[in-house]
Structure formats: C-alpha cells, structure tokens
C-alpha cells in the first residue's frame, strides 16, 4: 500500500509546496532577505552577553543573523520538487518491522520513578513528551495524518501516532518552535486546548500569540530570543526561548512574520533542550555557554537531503552531533525523522544510522545520542 501511494504523495507534495511557496517567494525577492544579515550582534567582544541579543527584523520580517543562512529561493524549490529524485518508500512490511509503533506506558510515568528522574517519550516527528521537575511538557505537538493546511493534500504520515491526545497524561506546558505545518498543527492545538483548557500553558515565539488566542488558547506566553519566563510564580522551572536557524510560513503572505527558535527548559534538578527545526549556526555554542549543560536534548536528524537545498534550514545527523556537543547535552534524542514523508531525498532509515556513526567518529560514548521507537519511553536518572 505504501508503495502504491508513493507517486500520489510526490504529486501532492509538489502541488502543496507550490501552492504555499510560490506567492510567498515572489514577495520575498528583497535581496536583504535573500542573503544572510551580517551579524552586527557579534561585534563588541565575545562575551556571552554580547551574543544574547534579541531577534532582528527587516521590513517587518524576522531574519537569521548568521552567514550560514540563505533563504530557500524559488528556482531552488522548483528544482527540488521536480528534478531531485526522491527515494521510493520501503514496503509496508519493512517499515513496520524497522519502525514499530508501541503504546506508551503512561502508567509508568504517572507513578513517577523518582522526583529527580527525567522521563521522555517520542510521540513522533518533533513531538516529544518530557517529564521533569514536576512538569509534563510537550514539544511541537502534531497528531494529524498530514502536516498541511488541509487534510487531503500535503506531506502524509507513514507511521501513526502511538497514542491519541485523549490518552496523554496531564500536560502542563507546550513549547512551539515555529509555524511550519509539521510543527504547529491546528487540529492538535485545538484538541489539546479542548482537553486541558487554561491549565495548559503555551510557550510560543514572538508574533504567534494572536494566532494562538484566536484558536482559543488562554494561557499563551510569547517570547523573544533569550527571554526567560518561569512556568509560574511558585515554580522553579524556567522556560527560555533561544535562537535556531530556520524560517516561518503558513500562508502565501506571512513569510517570516513570526519568529522561530529553540527552547531551554531549566529546572532545579533537570535541564532539557529542544532544538525545534534548524540548520547549523553558531547560536548553539552560545546556548551551551549560557544555559548548558543539559540532561537531555532533542535535536532533528531527518529531512536533510539534498544538502544544496536543505543545509541552511535542516541539520544533517553529523551536525546534530555537533549541536549535541555545542549545547553540552548529556544525552540527545534524535527527532524529526521516520514519521512523515517530508519530500527530502535521504532514505528513510538513514538518519539514525548516520547519527550513531557520526557520534562514534566524534568519540562519544555509546548511547549518548540515541533514537526511540514511536511511543517508547526513556528514563534518565540523575548521576
Ligand atoms: Zn520540520
């Protein structure tokens, strides 16, 4: 069945991409947006504070202030969609054997192994559930069949979510990294909001609050790069929005009007870093210097080929290991792979293999970087 739907997926992907990207790309022909903005913020001494600058906007749109960035152009996108050969999906049997989906044992989490343990569950793609310091946090929640404005076209799942929103334990906070459809899913946001209401806090990038409140979310905390907010007045857990090299778009005319980034969740016992979706940039060393070390990081390892198109916006597994080292993570979970057909050209089982290989080459200990099955839980005990 999977093989049979492959051609349809490619057509859907091409149509969906063009539908979304064409008008927006015509709008951003501004050369300021086509090139990297030179890092004025880097001048004036290499102290941590000199780097921890708020986001930058040009002509009403946020920009990436690093020389490692180039915006995805229209020509490149057309070449990517129409000329790059996409690998065919393996058979359903092979996918099921190599990417099993297991029901998460939330009972085990609710019993709470010990107050100092950090527990994590990979729900799929960039959706990760983390329990630490008395809070349950969800990252970029998506449970829908497609990551698209509509459910009849656009990138489709080849692995189902391991649980429904109804089956989740009580969620205290959600962090959103950016507005692309595979990270900000309207149906999932609405369902989470219906279930948890104002007891759920949404930590979101600058420019997204009005969208969140329009869909009914009550407790929305909108943040700029390096801004810090406690979970609540009594809480000892702090949320910090930190940079990432990426971009935002949901409609023809909203390119980069909302900020993108990564999240640090800093408790008195555990520290968690969520990279969101990102190309490699120097911000990660600064994040490590200012907020590291982390007990756990979740870093993207998929959707990285072809490099000529993907490199500015998506790290490859080798760079994911670099980020693991930059932010000073004790353990890193590889995310953003093995769930949706995102139209990238690497074979679907390749990301974890390259991730492990590159960690070994870098001399990391076995298990320091890892992947989980969909729905699998990992407990990280304090030393
Ligand atoms: Zn993504």
From TrEMBL:
Residues 137-337 form the Metallo-beta-lactamase domain. An N-acyl-1,2-diacyl-sn-glycero-3-phosphoethanolamine binds at residues 181, 314. InterPro entries: Metallo-B-lactamas, NAPE-PLD, RibonucZ/Hydroxyglut_hydro. GO terms for molecular function: N-acylphosphatidylethanolamine-specific phospholipase D activity; zinc ion binding. The keyword Lipid metabolism applies. It catalyses: N-(5Z,8Z,11Z,14Z-eicosatetraenoyl)-1,2-di-(9Z-octadecenoyl)-sn-glycero-3-phosphoethanolamine + H2O = N-(5Z,8Z,11Z,14Z-eicosatetraenoyl)-ethanolamine + 1,2-di-(9Z-octadecenoyl)-sn-glycero-3-phosphate + H(+). Zn(2+) 1 binds at residues 178, 180, 246, 277. GO terms for cellular component: cytoplasm. The keyword Disulfide bond does not apply. Its cofactor is Zn(2+). Its EC number is 3.1.4.54. It comes from the Eukaryota. GO terms for biological process: N-acylethanolamine metabolic process; N-acylphosphatidylethanolamine metabolic process; phospholipid catabolic process. This is N-acetylphosphatidylethanolamine-hydrolyzing phospholipase D. The lineage of its organism: Eukaryota, Metazoa, Spiralia, Lophotrochozoa, Brachiopoda.
């Amino acid at each position: 069945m999977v093989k049979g739907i492959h051609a349809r997926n490619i057509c859907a992907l091409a149509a969906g991409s063009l539908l979304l990207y064409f008008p927006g790309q015509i709008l951003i022909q501004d050369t300021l947006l086509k090139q990297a903005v030179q890092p004025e913020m880097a001048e004036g001494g290499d102290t941590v504070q000199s780097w921890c600058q708020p986001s930058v906007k040009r002509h009403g749109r946020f920009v990436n202030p690093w020389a490692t960035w180039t915006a995805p152009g229209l020509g490149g996108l057309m070449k990517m969609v129409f000329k790059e050969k996409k690998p065919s999906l393996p058979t359903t049997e092979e996918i099921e054997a190599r990417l099993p989906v297991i029901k998460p044992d939330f009972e085990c989490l609710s019993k709470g192994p010990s107050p100092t343990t950090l527990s994590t569950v990979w729900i799929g793609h960039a959706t990760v559930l983390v329990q630490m310091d008395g809070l349950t946090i969800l990252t970029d929640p998506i449970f829908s069949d497609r990551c698209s404005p509509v459910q009849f076209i656009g990138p489709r799942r080849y692995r189902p979510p391991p649980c429904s929103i109804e089956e989740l334990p009580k969620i205290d906070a959600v962090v959103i990294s950016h507005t692309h459809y595979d990270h900000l899913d309207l149906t999932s946001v609405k369902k989470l909001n219906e279930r948890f209401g104002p007891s759920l806090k949404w930590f979101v990038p600058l420019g997204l609050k009005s969208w969140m409140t329009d869909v009914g979310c009550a407790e929305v905390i909108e943040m700029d790069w390096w801004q810090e907010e406690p979970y609540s007045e009594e809480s000892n857990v702090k949320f910090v929005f930190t940079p990432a090299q990426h971009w935002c778009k949901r409609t023809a005319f909203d390119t980069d009007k909302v900020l993108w980034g990564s999240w640090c969740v800093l408790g008195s016992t555990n520290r968690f870093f969520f990279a969101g979706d990102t190309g490699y940039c120097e911000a990660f060393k600064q994040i490590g210097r200012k907020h590291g070390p982390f007990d756990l990081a979740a870093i993207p390892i998929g959707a990285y080929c072809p490099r000529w198109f993907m490199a500015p916006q998506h790290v490859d597994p080798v760079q994911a290991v670099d980020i693991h080292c930059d932010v000073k993570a004790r353990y890193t979970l590889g995310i953003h792979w093995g769930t949706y057909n995102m139209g990238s050209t690497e074979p679907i089982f390749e990301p974890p293999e390259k991730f492990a290989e590159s960690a070994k080459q870098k001399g990391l200990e076995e298990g320091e970087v890892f992947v989980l099955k969909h729905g699998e839980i990992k407990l990280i005990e304090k030393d």
